[in-house]
């Protein structure tokens, strides 16, 4: 994990870090709440994390890289369970009060302390290989759509379909272990519009009228998400003349794609001329975000990413963790888009939408730097 001295605020944030920026979208408590008594929202979210323990324990048990993995997995499950129960008794225990960042961080810390570096490594590798084999077909289907508006809508729907592959959701982890996931079936099964937050038409309207010089995309999951959802979209931006920075996690967390994994994926997809299905990739940059969680606090990113992002005029936060559970209301100095699928009932309830509803929140700044 990187030291605090190496982490800096994302320069694209438009509000002062120390006063207005708040990473977590859903307020678990308010100043008037009793600090020693958990709120109903805190209880609901603690229970959500409690329900995920069994799927994480199962993945940890099968980690062949860790000696005595079943024993250590049981220790993880017991320790995390006890901490979550402690929060129910005293919200200020263990560095609380809890929010989604703290609850994720404690889970990751326990896993790492017990020697588990990447319990989803095997399933990520399998899903990446499957998605790589489908990449050409997905791109060709998109390229065959002549109308720019319809093509960008198809690409956006592809991002939603890919984002379903999320093993941080207890329900989806169970479905995946039982049935697997089909990208094309997921494309067809996206909930009908209007979505709970639906700025698709506004984004489509700007697509043909402006070209962003540089876009920073905070990417989410391995497999279909990054390869069949984000990369075809990034390729389309490259075709428009936009420089694209893909920001990926420093360390493994759930099935999120990491910086080294993303570099390997891109190298496998490029042809001998360094192109992605006929599109030049000299303006495609991969950045280490410095993050180690499935959610992100933009007050703490790597200096590398801060430098690459300093002159961007579009920032995209993809996935429920980075773009909905955190940063949905974050304000930027440039155009921004938050895009992801709602995969927790608690998030759906907060937004007033449906489970597996879609979010595309597009904000255009009136005058760019």
UniProtKB/TrEMBL annotation:
Residues 53-359 form the Damage-control phosphatase ARMT1-like metal-binding domain. One of its GO terms (molecular function) is pantothenate kinase activity. GO terms for cellular component: cytosol; nucleus. The lineage of its organism: Eukaryota, Viridiplantae, Streptophyta, Embryophyta, Tracheophyta. Pfam families: ARMT1-like_dom. This is Damage-control phosphatase ARMT1-like metal-binding domain-containing protein. Its cofactor is Ni(2+); Mn(2+). It comes from the Eukaryota. One of its GO terms (biological process) is coenzyme A biosynthetic process. The keyword Hydrolase applies. Keywords: Hydrolase, Manganese, Metal-binding, Nickel.
């Amino acid at each position: 994990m990187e030291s605090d001295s190496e982490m800096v605020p994302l320069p694209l944030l438009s509000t002062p870090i120390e006063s207005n920026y708040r990473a977590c979208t859903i307020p678990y408590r308010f100043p008037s709440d009793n600090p020693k008594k958990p709120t109903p929202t805190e209880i609901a979210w603690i229970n959500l994390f409690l329900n995920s323990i069994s799927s994480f324990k199962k993945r940890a048990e099968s980690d062949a890289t860790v000696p005595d993995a079943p024993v250590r997995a049981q220790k993880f499950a017991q320790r995390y369970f006890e901490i979550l129960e402690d929060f129910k008794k005293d919200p200020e225990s263990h560095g609380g009060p809890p929010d989604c960042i703290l609850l994720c961080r404690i889970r990751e810390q326990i896993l790492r302390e017990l020697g588990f570096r990447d319990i989803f490594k095997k399933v990520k590798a399998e899903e990446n290989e499957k998605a790589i084999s489908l990449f050409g077909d997905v791109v060709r289907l998109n390229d065959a759509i002549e109308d720019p508006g319809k093509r960008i809508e198809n690409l956006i729907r592809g991002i939603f379909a890919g984002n379903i592959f999320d093993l941080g959701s207890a329900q989806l982890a169970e479905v995946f272990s039982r049935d697997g996931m089909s990208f094309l079936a997921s494309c067809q099964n996206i909930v009908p519009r209007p979505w709970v937050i639906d700025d698709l038409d506004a984004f489509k309207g700007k697509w043909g009228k402006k070209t962003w010089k540089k876009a920073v995309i905070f990417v989410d999951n391995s497999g279909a998400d990054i390869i069949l959802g984000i990369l075809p979209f990034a390729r389309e931006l490259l075709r428009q003349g936009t420089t694209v920075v893909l920001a990926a996690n420093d360390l493994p967390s759930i099935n999120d794609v990491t910086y080294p994994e993303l570099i390997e994926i891109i190298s496998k997809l490029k042809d001998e001329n360094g192109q992605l299905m006929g599109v030049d990739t000299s303006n495609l940059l991969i950045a280490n975000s410095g993050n180690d969680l499935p959610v992100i606090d933009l007050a703490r990113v790597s200096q590398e990413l801060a430098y690459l992002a300093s002159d961007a005029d579009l920032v995209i936060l993809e996935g429920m963790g980075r773009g909905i559970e955190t940063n949905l209301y974050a304000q930027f100095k440039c155009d921004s888009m938050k895009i992801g699928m709602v995969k927790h009932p608690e998030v759906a309830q907060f937004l007033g939408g449906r489970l597996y509803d879609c979010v595309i929140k597009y904000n255009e700044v009136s005058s760019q730097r």
